[in-house]
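Two proteins were folded this term; both appear here.
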Amino acid sequence: MNLREASDESESSLIDTDSTILKTTADVELKPEDIIAIHRIPFKKGTTRLIIIKLRHNNAKSAIMHKRTSLKTKGYKLEDVVTKRTQAGYFYTPI
């Protein structure tokens, strides 16, 4: 997701930004209590780092992934990472 990284970025600011984008772009309500963990992961030097989100319930992830196309048309790309460890998570990736 093309979210510029702020120098004072925190977990709560990422949650707020992510929730706002999902609500306005895909009409999906993501509550802070739905999120177990959210952070950026290392990426190529000089590019926007990816955001990874671990969700508490699979139904929240399903609602988001069903709106993946509408998010992509507005400049956001989601990657679904399905392994036993990461079943309830997804990635925002820069397009």
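Next, the second protein.
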Amino acid sequence: VSGLLTAHSSRAEPLVISYSKPPYRISWIKVCLFVLSRAPSLPRDCVAFQTCLLQAELVNYERVKEYCLKVLQKEGENFKALYRSGVAFYHLGDFNKALYYLKEARSRQPTDTNVIRYIQLTEMKLSRCSQREKETL
């Protein structure tokens, strides 16, 4: 794959693939997904490409969760994978798991404002869920 791709782009512009004539223009997220499908056993690469997945316009949080959990199987202390797992679980509506991963991420970087913000959001969601459950009883 690395021999086929030449990256001359920023996030805002499409990646140019010099594979054959004429060069094909596709979005960088498609390249990230292609590379991930070919190299899922490379945890550091997975972490780099999780960024691509999180920055996509329509984020596939299920896929982000899947790749983050793969990284955590090999590198259980990986801050980015912990944080991104928490974010993915939050957006998938699994607030208990989101809180677990976010708190694990906070234990590694206690002052990270993004982690703190998502912990607050998750705790608010959990509080609302428990209030609704009490109201229905």
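The radius of gyration is 18 Å. Residues 1-26 have pLDDT under 50 and may be disordered. These notes refer to the second protein only.
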